[in-house]
Amino acid sequence: MKMIFENYSLKKHNTFGLDIKARFFASPENKKNIIELLRMGEFLKTKPLILGSGSNILFTRDFDGLVIKPEIKDITLVKETDDSVFLRAGAGVVWDDFVAYCTDRGWGGVENLSGIPGTVGASPVQNIGAYGSEAKDCIEYVEYLDLDSLKKVTLSGKDCGFGYRDSVFKNSLKSQTLIMHVTFILSKHPTLNIGYADLSDFFKDRECKGVNDIREAVIEIRNKKLPDPAVIGNAGSFFKNPVVEITKAEQLKKLYPTLKTFPAGEGLSKLPAAWFIDQCGYKGKRSGNAGVHSNQPLVLLAYEGARAEEILNLATEIINTVRERFGIEISPEVNIF
Ligand SMILES: Cc1cc2nc3c(=O)[nH]c(=O)nc-3n(C[C@H](O)[C@H](O)[C@H](O)COP(=O)(O)OP(=O)(O)OC[C@H]3O[C@@H](n4cnc5c(N)ncnc54)[C@H](O)[C@@H]3O)c2cc1C
């Protein structure tokens, strides 16, 4: 097994770049080592924290426990039919490497999720989504270790409680699982999904020939729109888009005709949180060393020297201002520890 580090800085392991310390840190490469580590950590009062690339986490204080970053890195073809392949990928596989693995072979399903930072292990946690696709559409099984019993559990995709940026792993199983593998079903004859506005614009004057074209387009669009965490600390969208009753959405739309609304299941509408944040004048605003991105107001920035408290205070101020002005509750997408 690799080393266990003590009083270990997580600065390189969270995309806000915050210099937070973990009492213990280890990156085991297989199930045996993970179980050994969990047994060793049993004396600690705090449950272990499972970390991927830290691209969806805001650490607000040092973590007085064991941080485990699983490095299981295999990708295995477990089943193949005339139409589909089933790929089982380790939690530590970089998500975008997995997407490239699929698109290079012409297998479809995850191409619209190209360029999302993070790991395969985290992909079911918030059911990552972008450009008209969500991970849930391709997830067959999630294999995890129950952190109490240390038993392996296999959960089928339909039992994962997937919703918009949501799953059982954020709710009833919160802090209870270490996801080791995720099995995806990919199509050998993919239907190309370019319905999302940015993608249909991109392909207005050019042909989309396959999943690789979608991958390239998505990466190009993302690079133009989103700040690179290697340049400035951020965790992508800090806030989720609020989902409200259609009647509420219609009332708001009458008052504010520029507000866009999107269907979100029976009787519900999804509203763009970015629009509300922009209307409240936060686009490009800076408060101390925390700020709001000037093109994409969903993204909070950690300027050099930012403290977690500054980011959290700015997030809270935005949530309160939007609530007071519009009666709309926006909530963080980022996991706050
Ligand atoms: C620039 C940028 C753009 C982004 N764009 C998008 C986007 O378009 N769509 C989108 O959905 N997200 C987006 N995100 C958010 C982020 O990429 C995803 O949430 C990603 O899945 C997080 O992966 P991670 O490995 O970094 O997880 P982490 O941030 O390390 O962890 C996230 C959560 O998952 C848990 N977790 C991680 N690994 C495991 C595991 N193996 N077992 C159990 N629990 C685990 C953690 O405890 C934590 O609660 C973006 C982030 C950035 C920085």
Give me some keywords for this one:
Uridine Diphospho-n-acetylenolpyruvylglucosamine Reductase, domain 3; binds flavin-adenine dinucleotide; single chain; five-stranded antiparallel sheet; alpha+beta; Uridine Diphospho-n-acetylenolpyruvylglucosamine Reductase, domain 1; Uridine Diphospho-n-acetylenolpyruvylglucosamine Reductase, domain 2
- In whole angstroms, the N-to-C terminal distance is 27 Å
- The CATH architecture name of the largest domain reads 2-Layer Sandwich
Order of helices and strands: EEHEEEEEHEEEEEHHEEHEEHEEEHE
User: Total helix count?
Assistant: 7
Number of strand elements: 20
Q: How much is the radius of gyration in Å?
A: 20 Å
CATH topology of the largest domain: Uridine Diphospho-n-acetylenolpyruvylglucosamine Reductase, domain 3
Bound molecules: flavin-adenine dinucleotide
Total domain units: 3
How would you describe this protein?
The structure is a single chain. This protein is of the alpha+beta class and 337 residues long. It folds into three domains: 5-68, Uridine Diphospho-n-acetylenolpyruvylglucosamine Reductase, domain 2; 75-224, Uridine Diphospho-n-acetylenolpyruvylglucosamine Reductase, domain 3 (2-Layer Sandwich), CATH 3.30.465; 226-336, UDP-N-acetylenolpyruvoylglucosamine reductase, C-terminal domain (Uridine Diphospho-n-acetylenolpyruvylglucosamine Reductase, domain 1, Alpha-Beta Complex), CATH 3.90.78. Helices cover 23% and strands 26% of the residues. The chain is built from seven helices and 20 strands. It has helices at 31-40, 95-104, 197-202, 211-225, 246-255, 273-279, 308-326; strands at 5-9, 21-26, 49-50, 57-58, 63-68, 75-80, 84-90, 129-130, 133-134, 139-146, 152-156, 177-187, 233-237, 243-245, 262-263, 268-270, 286-287, 290-292, 299-302, 335-336. The chain has a five-stranded antiparallel β-sheet with strand order 6-7-12-10-11, with no helix packed on it. It has a four-stranded mixed β-sheet with strand order 1-2-5-3, with no helix packed on it. Strands 13-19-18-17 form a four-stranded antiparallel β-sheet, with helices on one face. The longest helix is centred in the C-terminal third of the chain and has 19 residues, at 308-326. The chain is globular. The two termini are 27 Å apart. Flavin-adenine dinucleotide binds next to strand 3, strand 8, strand 12 and strand 13.
